[in-house]
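Query structure, 112 C-alpha cells:
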C-alpha cells in the first residue's frame, strides 16, 4: 500500500524548476540605466500630473519615500507588484500605466 502511495505522489508531482533570472525575462531592462532613468522620469511626470507630492504618492503606494525617490531617479527598477501599486495610486489601469511608461520607453516616437 505504501508503495502505491509513493508511485502516485511521484507520478503527480510537478518538477520545480528555478525561474530564469529576471533580466532574461524582461529583456535586460534592469541593466540598462537609460531605460531605468526614463522610466523614473515618466513616473515622476505622472505623479506630478496627478498633483501628488513624493511623500503622499509613496504613502498611497504603501512604500517609503526614499524607495520612490530611487525609482524616480533611475537607481532601481521596481518589480511588477510595484507597477500595480503605482497604477492603483494614480487611479489608472495597469495597461494604461504600462502604456504611459514602458510603451514610450520601448517604442519611442519622435514627438516624445
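Result returned for the query:
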Amino acid at each position: 500500500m505504501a508503495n502505491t502511495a509513493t508511485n502516485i505522489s511521484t507520478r503527480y508531482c510537478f518538477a520545480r524548476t528555478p525561474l530564469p533570472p529576471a533580466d532574461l525575462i524582461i529583456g535586460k531592462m534592469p541593466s540598462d540605466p537609460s531605460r531605468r532613468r526614463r522610466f523614473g522620469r515618466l513616473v515622476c511626470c505622472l505623479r506630478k500630473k496627478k498633483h501628488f507630492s513624493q511623500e503622499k504618492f509613496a504613502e498611497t503606494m504603501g512604500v517609503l519615500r526614499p524607495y520612490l525617490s530611487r525609482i524616480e531617479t533611475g537607481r532601481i527598477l521596481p518589480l511588477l507588484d510595484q507597477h500595480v501599486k503605482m497604477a492603483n495610486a494614480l487611479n489608472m489601469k495597469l495597461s494604461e500605466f504600462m502604456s504611459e511608461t514602458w510603451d514610450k520607453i520601448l517604442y519611442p516616437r519622435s514627438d516624445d
